[in-house]
Design a protein that fits this description.
The complex is a heterotrimer. By secondary structure, chain B is an alpha+beta fold. Chain B is built from three helices and nine strands. The longest helix of chain B is centred in the last third of the chain and has 8 residues, at about 115-125. Chain B starts with 7 loop residues before the first strand and ends with a helix. Chain C is built from 13 helices and 15 strands. The chains are: A alpha/beta, B alpha+beta, C alpha/beta.
Chain lengths: ~475, ~130, ~450
Amino acid sequence: MWNELEPVIFDLSSPGRTAYTLPEIDVPLSPVPDGYVRDELNLPEVSELQFVRHYTHLSQKNFSIDTVFYPLGSCTMKYNPKVNERAAAIEGLTQVHPLQPESAAQGSLELMFKLQEALKEISGFSAVSLQPAAGAHGEFAGVLVMRAYHQSRGDEKRTKVLIPDSAHGTNPATSAMSGFSVVQIPSDERGNVDLQALRSACDETVAGLMLTNPNTLGLFEEHVLEVCETVHACGGLMYGDGANLNALLGIARPGDLGFDVMHFNLHKTFTTPHGGGGPGSGPVGVGEKLAAFLPGPIVVKESDFYKLEMPEKSIGRLKAFYGNYGMFIRAYTYIRMMGPDGLRAVSENAVLNANYLKAKVSKHFALAVERTCMHEFVVHGDIPGTDVHALDVSKRLIDYGQHPPTNYFPLIVHDALMIEPTETENKEALDAFAQALIAIREEAISSPELLHSAPHNTPVTRLDEVKAVRNPVLCYKG
Amino acid sequence: MNIDPNARYTKTHEWVRPEGDAYSYGITDHAQSELSDIVFVDLPAIGDSFAPGDTIGVVESVKAASDLYMPMAGEIVAVNESLADAPESVNADPYGAGWIFKFKMADPAEFTRLLSADDYAQFTGD
Amino acid sequence: MPYIPVTEQDQREMLTEIGIHSVADLFEDVPVQHRFPDIKLPKAVSEIEVLDELYGMALKNSSTGCFATFLGAGAYNHFVPSAIPYLATRGEFLTAYTPYQPEVSQGTLQAIFEYQSMVAELTRMPVVNASHYDGATSMAEAAIMALNVANGKRHKIIIAPFVHPQYRQTLRTYLPGKQVTIVGDENPQASLSDLKAMVDSDTACLIIQNPTFFGDLLDVSNLAEAIHQAGALLIVVATPIMSLGLLTPPGEYGADIVVAEGQPLGGGMNFGGPYLGIFATREQLIRKMPGRLVGETTDTNGRRGYVLTLSTREQHIRREKATSNICTNQGLMALMAAMYLAYMGKQGMRQVAELCYHKAHYTAARIGQLAEYQVLNSGVFFNEFIVQCPRPVSEINQELLKKGILGGYDLEQDYPERKNQMLVCVTELNSQPQIDRFVEALLALQGV
C-alpha cells in the first residue's frame, strides 16, 4: 500500500511454503555427479497469495503515467496504449524462438520488415536496423557506423566527435566508448549551436557532430541546414540523437535536413512503455552511403519471403538476436493506429501543449531562453530572493500529485526544470500543473520550510543518499 | 572560505604544500564546499609517476565526480589511507586531516609557478 | 485521433494564451522547403483492424506453444507462471519511469533491490546491477570493465571458443574503440587448459561459459587461482541460467564477474527480445561496474527506503568518463526475473533445474540408442547436448517441422567443422511423450 512499509520478500518467507506447481517427473532419473551440485539456494518461500499481495503493494508505491501527470523533459512520458499490450501478448507472435527456421517465423519477420520500412519513411532515411536495445545502444551503433565509414575510405585521421554542451550524457559516453575524443561546442544565447565555434572546430580530424534536434532546451536548431553543411564540408558526418522526435513527426524528416544517421527511441516517441527503466528500443536509421555498415542482422524481403541478412560491410552484431522485438510489436501497432495524419497530429499537439504550458508557467518562472519551444521547454526552478532551488520545487510538486519535471538537465542551465507535457495530456491536466507551480512559488515566499522538507505525503520522505553511497547496501542481508 | 597561507594553489582548486622533502596535496575549502558530502576518494598508488595535467584520482560526492589533476611532474610517495573509511575528512579539514597524497616533485622550481595564497583568494573571489 | 484529447475549443483557447493564430505558426523555425513532408504510410486503422493484421501475421509463424521445442542455444523455452505477467504488466510498474525520484518510485526500487538480492544468491556474487540489455552485451561490458580494472595497462582478452558464437561476435563489435586483441577462439577445439596456458601479464581477463555452449560442465578446480596469479580477471558466462538451480554457482569457484542471459527467468522467447542481461561482480570491483545499482538507506524519519546509488559511475554524471553509456536498461525484465525467482522460490528453482537435467539425459540416452545418431558430449552436461546426425541438420529440421517439432540448433552455421551436428535442448516443457515422438521422428529420418 502507498504509505505502509512493505517487508522485503525474504521476510515474508516461511520454510516449506511454495507457490509454484510443476509436472511430476515422467522420465527415469540420471545420476548427478558429486562436486557439481550446489549446497543450497536461499530464495524466498512464499505462497501465491503472499506473492500477489507483495507485488501489488509495491506497485501501489509508484507514480506512473497511468496514475499521474509525468512531464519529464526529454523522456516523452506519453500515454502507453493498451492495445499495444494486447498485441504484444499474442502468443503466435511471441512464442517464437529467435533461431527457428526463417520459414517458420515469417510472421515475425514480416512485422520487423514493416516497422523498418515505416521508420525509414517517417525519418527520411534509406535503411534501418532494429537491433539496438535502447537509445544509448543506438547511439553506439551510429557512432560505430560513422567510424566504419571513414575507415572504409582509408580516412584514419578522424579521431574527434563534436558534441554541444547541452547534450545528454550518453552522447559523450558513447563517443568515448567508441574510441573518440570529445570536443564540446558551446551554445549561443538563443540556444543554438554556436556556428562560429562549430566552424573553427570543423577540420579533417572530425568524424562528425552529434546533434539533438530539437535540442535539450526544447528548441529547434535555427541554423540546422548550415550546421549540416558545415560539418559535411569538412568531411564529417551528422549524427542525430532522435530522443526528441516527438516534435518532428510529419513536421520535418531528419534525413531531409541533412542528418546521415540517427537513432530512434521507441520507448519515447512510439509509446512503448518505460517499464521503470526499460526495456526500451533504439533502432538506428541511415542515409544511402552508410547503409552497408548498419549493425545486423536486419530483415530483407526477396519476392514474398522475409529473410535475415547482415549488411555488406556491417559493423557487426550489437547483441544476440535481433533487438527488443516485443517493443517492435507495440511500436508497429501504434504507427498503424495513428497513420500519417495521426503522427503529424501527435507532433503538432505535443508542441502546442508545450507552448501553452510555457506561456502559463513563464509568468512565474524564468525561461532559460525566450523562443518558441518545440515539445518541451526549460525554466529556472530556483526562486530569486529565497533559498529555494529546483530540487525543492520538484519535491513539493509531488505533494500536489504531480511527477516532477526533469531536474538539473541540461547542465548549461542552472536549476533547470525541463518540462515536456506530451500530446496525450488534456488542457485540464496542463492547467492543474501550472496551478501547482504557481502555488509552490507562493509557498516559497510564505513558507519555504514546506518545500525544503517536501515531499510529505509519500511512502518515504527525502532519502539519505550520502549514506547509500558511503555504506552501500546492495542486497538483502537477513 | 579558508585558505592555507603555507600552500600554493591551482586554478582547478587543488593545494600543494611543502612538507620535509616532499609535498602534500589536497583540494581546497572552495572545492569541498562545491562538491558537498564527499563519499569516496579514488587514490593513486605509491610509486605512480605523473606528468603535468595528468588525472591522478577522483573525488566523488553523491551527484558529482571531480577529477584530480597533477599540476607538475612527480612521483607519489604516500597516500592518505584513512580516506577509505572517512572520506568526509576532506570536507571537515581539507588542508589538514583531509590531505590526499604526498609526492616528490621532479622540478622543485615548479612550486613557485603555482598561485600564491593571495592570488588564489583573488581567483576565487573570496 | 486516438490518444490525443485536445478539442477544437481547447485548441482555440491555447492558441489565444500563446498569442498565435494557428498551430502551423509554431513551426517557423523549420526550414520551409522541408516543412510538413508527405509521409507515405497506410492510413490509420482502428483497434479491430490492427489486431486483425497482427493475428494474420501470427498465423505465418510456427509458435512454440504448438510445437514440441528442442531448440535452445541462448534462448530457452520455459514456463512462465500466470501470476507473473499478471503483476508485471500492472500500469504502476509498466508505465513508470526510471526511479530518479525515489520518493515516488519505492515500488520499482524495492523490487529491483530484491532482484539484486535474489540474483546475488543464485550466482553467489555479492554485487548485482539492475540489468543490461542481454547476456551478450553484459559479457561485452564485463570485458570492458576488466580493461578498466587494469587501468588500460593490459591489452589482451582471452575468450573460449565454447562461449556462445553471438556473444563472441558482440564482443568484437564492442571493442574496436579500444586497442586490444581478442584471442582464444581462433582454435575451435581449444580446451580450458589450453586457454589457461595463454593467460599472461598482458591479459585483462579470461572469459568462459559454464555450462559451455555445447552443454558441457567444466572442471573449474584451480582455474580462478591460476587466472588471479597472472593478475587477470575470471569472467563466467552462466548461460543457461537455470543450471544454477542445481549446479555450483560461479561465485563459489572464484569468478570475478558473472554475466548471463536472464530470459529463462519469467521472460518468454519473444523472437529474441526483450531479454535480460545479468551482471554481477565482487565488492572490491564495484566502482568500475557499469549499470544502475539500487541501494538501501533511510529517510528523514529513519524509515527504510531505496535509492539509485553509486551514480557517479554513470553517463548522466561522468559523461565521457562513465563506466558505460548505458541509460535505459531492461528494468521490467529484471522485475519479471525477480518475480520468477520469488514465485518458484527455493524449492521450485531446484525442481525446474532437475526436470531439465533428467529429461535432457533421458533424451540423450534414447537418441544414443539410435544406430545412426551419437551423443558427442563425453563428460557431464546440464540440459543441452550435441547429436551427430546422419544428414544435414537443416534438412532434418525441415522434416521435423512437418511433424510439429522444432529441432535443435545447426552447429555447422557457427562451427564449420561440426558437420551434421545438432545442439539439442530439453526443458521442463518437454513431456516424455513429446521426447519419445522426437526420437521416433529422428529414427524415421535414418537410412536415407
